[in-house]
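Standup, Tuesday
Yesterday: got the pipeline producing structure tokens again.
Today: sanity-check two examples.
Blockers: none.

Example 1:
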Amino acid sequence: MRKTIKQVFGEYLDEQKKKLAPRTYEYYDETVYYLEQCLNGYGYNTLGKEDAKKFDENFKKGIEFCDTFEPQILSSSNFFEFLGYYYPKKIACGHDRAKKICGATTALYKWMVKNKYILQEEDGDEIELKESVDYLRESFDEGMEKYG
């Protein structure tokens, strides 16, 4: 059985808890919490017809997006939406805290790519991880400027 997004996020947090200071870990835990909320609320927008049907069936049973799908369904665009729209617009916090959440989000994204939970492709072309991370940061900065 493959892991769901929620299970992979749990695996990531377990790993981080062992190596991060408690205060730093709090940002990682908060990041995963809000990213999960974002995906559960908006992740279905990027689904194809078959996956949308699966989501609808599970949602009627009370099963959310992160409990339905494997992480391979995610792409960099889900992270861009989180950093560029969801977090700056929906979550009230100071700019310093938001920057730490951005750092924790990019760390999670890199970990998911490294562990092959997310494929680094865009329109069939492999893209560099650094390029994606830079774009994540730019998306966050634009979102904070616009909504923060």
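Example 2:
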Amino acid sequence: MSWFETWFDSPFYHILYKNRDDSEAQFFIDNLINYLKPKSNDKFLDLACGKGRHSIYLNSKGLDTQGCDLSPQSILYAKQFENESLSFFEHDMRNKIVHQKFDFVLNLFTSFGYFEDKSDNLKTLISVENALTENGVLVIDFFNASNIIENLISNEIKIIDDIKFEINRKVENGYIIKNITFNANKKDYHFTEKVQVINLHDFENLLKKVDLEIIRIFGSYQLDTFDIKNSKRLIIIAQKK
């Protein structure tokens, strides 16, 4: 199994990241909605939605939303929040979605570039293009690789719920790799996160291969102008031609 199939489905993943800033996520969604100006009947897909925090907030703003993720446990958790205009389903984003078209597809919080085979990046974008309506919009929220590498913290310890997580980060063979070791329930664990170093030029080349045209680039959740050195995020807005 790939690292993301095991790690994202582990309860320890959700413990390590339990303190993520929901207010920051909601701030970003508010700014996105203000920029995108969706119509009341537009349909949103939260691609690689995890436990659905973005999907749930989108739906709370009155937007018809579906979320999908590879992790069965995350989808099982998210399903408790379903209603008439919010639903969740298991899905590998490399595969086409055949049951519906969407006006907006959101891929948020660096949920791209996990794959060993880099051709899977293109497969993902092909599936997104297929899922979008005519003139539909894709939003990719990725880290700014240049800034991440420049400010990489090599070693870190986090103690959460009495678990001591030892985290080691490095850049190797075109990937940013995070090794996570800890002991829980008298058992040693080791997990790895491995995300491709993908810069704006790489995304531009990928999107040229499908019918998606970049219309705007932002560098923060405030939707500031992207700066390759200083921006923490690389947020790409692309439209289906």
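Quick observation on example 2: Helices lie at 3-7, 11-16, 22-36, 53-60, 72-78, 119-131, 145-150, 200-208. The longest helix spans residues 22-36.
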